[in-house]
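[job 0417] fold request received: RNA polymerase sigma-H factor
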Amino acid sequence: MSENLEQLFVAQLQANQNIIHKICRLYTAGEDAHKDLFQEITIQLWKAYPKFRGDSKFSTWTYRVALNTAITLYRKTKRTVSTVEYESHQHFIKDVDYNYEEEEQIKLMYKAVYQLNDIEKALVFMYLEDKDYQEIAETLGISEVNARVKMNRIKGKLKKILNP
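[job 0417] inference complete; emitting structure tokens
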């Protein structure tokens, strides 16, 4: 890959790394698992980057790759998590300190969301990121109507979890 392509990737990844951190937070419990998943998502993004055609926004594409990677690894964690060597690409990204000391309400919300299934988590995450239903549907590969229906059901489910 050309150095110019690498620089473009790094710039776009740095601008969108909070997306990855938030997905990691949804699908992991603990700082080490968070870092491992962040690393794996970054590797998958780098591997897939040459195929990124720009048909969608980089952030939308990042959501899709990150969510697919997180869901795949999340399902595998019931067995074991394996990661790809990353040392050769560490210089790409400046690590932004991620604050693990969130407010109590946010912790409760994450705890509730953590109880949802994989697709529900992804939908809630994108909804909280102010993505419109069209973008959510495109990213998750479902219809816009289906995304709306699922979100309404998830809201009810979260209310029951948070207010038993």
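[job 0417] notes: The mean pLDDT is 81. The two ends are 53 Å apart (CA to CA).
[job 0417] exit 0
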